[in-house]
Amino acid sequence: MSAPLSYREAVIDVDAITANVGRLRELTGARRLMVVVKANGYGHGALATAQAALAGGADALGTAELREAVALRTAGIVAPLLCWLHDPGEDFDAALEHSIDVAVSSVAQLNALAQAAEDRGVRAAVQVKVDTGLSRNGAPEGEWVPVAQALARHAARGTVHLTGLFSHLSNTSREDDLAQLGRLRAADAVLRRFGIQSPVLHLAATAAALRIPETRLDMVRTGIGVYGLSPVEDETSLGLGLVPAMTLQGRVAGLRRVARGTGVSYDYTYRAGGETTLALVPFGYADGIPRSASGVAEVSVGGRRHRIAGRVAMDQFVVDVGDDPVLVGDPVVLWGDPTTGVPSVDEWARWCGTINYELVTRLGPRVPRRLLPAAASRA
């Protein structure tokens, strides 16, 4: 017996995540695969995603923040974990306590990590992140030598050991990405000059791993593809053999028969073209639905597609369902697996002028994540 449809929910098919990990390894031929589960597993639930990814053969997991990695470790995840974005005054003690690899982007971060390790009497696992052209997180080229010198000094004292060297691509063009690959190799050469050899080099995320084999190196970091979504606009999930893991759905909360000319929602940007039925859907921008979806995005109501009528409000939006035989409580699917006929996240991204990454990660706390029964029983 299937579970009753919720008022609003994101249904997560973790078996799809498991299958997607295997498919990405097949597509990329990756020697090692790190699955990125930052931002609550791209909105899918970090723990469920981590478990599913490891079941699919992932070799390691990555998070942006240390607290994300600690939460996974305390929940029972024993696989290698890497975190790479830190508060200026980050206390690295939790990373040492929970055996989490820390990526550093500066001498200051490296010194802080080494001091924490010395205070605990342990050796910290560290990776160096270098900026090769994205101009954000990562040590810039002018700091590679000071970072290498500090790393050699701390390694000699036994407070740190290097587990990897990595960077992140801009995905601007093949030429730009290959130029960044060259800079990563240059950073590796700097480390070697100071007697430091990185056991793992990694650069490619999903997009580059699929399109630029030279960037795969020792390990590939897969994010969006694990969740069954394409990282590029000119390729679909179906074309890549990936299965979207999230279905965002709810129920019709109310119905109203209205006359021609009736205004709908704020500013009356939509008026009924004739006598029609309006269906109320309990999702709004407080739940992560972009206001830019107003009047352009489609949803599936009772198995048929209809466009949002008027403005998306904080808690709700309205759909003009015409004369369709819709009932209160009927299912509404905002996005899911397009092979079932419902809108896809990629369609929503085009309608809203954004990317699929943003849509799945912006869902608010009022939207519970529910694992499909078969997957939930396995977890």
Please provide a written account of the structure.
- The chain has 379 residues and is an alpha/beta fold.
- It folds into two domains: 60-218, TIM Barrel; 246-378, Lyase, Ornithine Decarboxylase, Chain A, domain 1 (Beta Barrel), CATH 2.40.37.
- Helices cover 32% and strands 22% of the residues.
- The protein contains 13 helices and 19 strands.
- The protein has helices spanning 14-28, 38-42, 46-55, 66-74, 93-97, 107-120, 144-157, 174-193, 206-211, 237-240, 345-352, 356-361, 373-378, and strands at 8-12, 33-36, 60-63, 81-83, 101-104, 124-129, 160-166, 201-202, 220-222, 246-251, 254-258, 263-264, 270-271, 276-281, 298-301, 304-309, 317-322, 331-335, 369-371.
- The protein has a nine-stranded mixed β-sheet with strand order 11-14-17-16-15-18-10-1-19. Strands 8-7-6-5-4-3-2-9 form an eight-stranded parallel β-sheet. The protein has a two-stranded antiparallel ribbon with strand order 12-13.
- Strand 7, helix 8 (174-193) and strand 8 (201-202) form a beta-alpha-beta unit.
- Helix 1 (14-28) crosses helix 3 (46-55) and helix 6 packs parallel to helix 7 (144-157).
- It is elongated and about 80 Å long.
- The two termini are 19 Å apart.
- The model is unreliable at 375-379 (pLDDT under 50).
- This is Alanine racemase.
- Substrate binds at residues 136, 314.
- Belongs to the alanine racemase family.
- One of its GO terms (cellular component) is cytosol.
- Pathway: Amino-acid biosynthesis; D-alanine biosynthesis; D-alanine from L-alanine: step 1/1.
